[in-house]
Amino acid sequence: MPNWCSNLVIIEAHQTDRQPTNELLIEIENLLKGPDDAPFPIHTIYQANHMSHFKIEPQSLRDGVIGTKESVFSFQKILPIPEKLLHECIDLNNPKENDKAIFISDIRSPNNLRSRFWDTKWSQVDEDLVISDNQLIYTFDTAWSAPLSVFRKLYELLKDYPVTITTHSYEPGSVFGFTLEGSFGFFEELEWTESDLETLPYEIFGYELEEDDDDDF
């Protein structure tokens, strides 16, 4: 199983005379909805190993592709993997090519295409969306790493909208965290310091504080 990276995306809308805040949030919400993965041909997926990760129901495979469920924060909608590359993926269920070394190293494998475009090997899981009067708040997990390229593209996608975008990512296994914040296409990207890692996972994601085990003498 992977080390899961926790992700939080907050899109805060600012009131303008041009458009009511609630209409602006609905427009952005619809803009970010899309398929839960890139539509790889199903023969490129290790089906037995990936069913649990992508939570694919058998009936969703009938059209021969994955990425048929809707996501509220769609990586493929925000930063699409080109269709040409999807159909050039190697056949991972072919015994001749079903080799671990090929699976890991070949750029044409689905995992490597996702990593190349999204900075993470799989699409998001366990996602949720909370809508307030002026915010869209997304939470989801990704495998091993944060989808930083998706976050960077989000700023470009929403550069003409009167919103402030803040993203936080924390992976406890490798112990790293990132925060991006900005608006109108510009953002600052910060890697968490050692001091940040002592507090921000608990303040942002609700991780429980670890107490030092002191021996009683």
Structural description of this entry:
- The protein is α+β, with helices and mostly antiparallel strands.
- It has one domain.
- About 30% of the residues lie in helices and about 25% in strands.
- The chain contains 8 helices and 8 strands.
- The chain has helices at about 20-30, 45-55, 75-80, 85, 100-105, 110-120, 150-155, 195-205, and strands at about 5-15, 35, 70, 125-130, 135-145, 165-170, 175-185, 185-190.
- It has a 6-stranded antiparallel sheet, with helices on both faces. The chain has a two-stranded antiparallel sheet with strand order 2-3.
- A hairpin with a 4-residue loop joins strand 6 and strand 7 (about 175-185).
- The longest helix is centred in the N-terminal third of the chain and has 12 residues, at about 20-30.
- It starts with a strand and ends in a 12-residue tail after the last helix.
Q: Which secondary structure elements does this structure contain, and how are they paired or packed?
A:
Layout: E1 4-13, H1 21-32, E2 34-35, H2 47-54, E3 70-71, H3 75-78, H4 83-87, H5 100-105, H6 110-118, E4 125-131, E5 135-143, H7 148-157, E6 163-171, E7 176-183, E8 186-191, H8 194-205
Antiparallel strand pairs: 1-5, 1-6, 2-3, 4-5, 6-7, 7-8
Summed up:
With 217 residues, the chain is α+β, with helices and mostly antiparallel strands.
- Calculate the mean pLDDT score and round it: 80
Nearest-angstrom radius of gyration?
19 Å
Q: Structural class, please?
A: alpha+beta
Tally of alpha and pi helices: 8
Q: Give the spatial strand order of the biggest sheet.
A: 4-5-1-6-7-8
N to C succession of SSEs: EHEHEHHHHEEHEEEH
**Number of structurally distinct domains:** 1
Largest sheet: 6 strands, antiparallel
Helix content: 25-40%
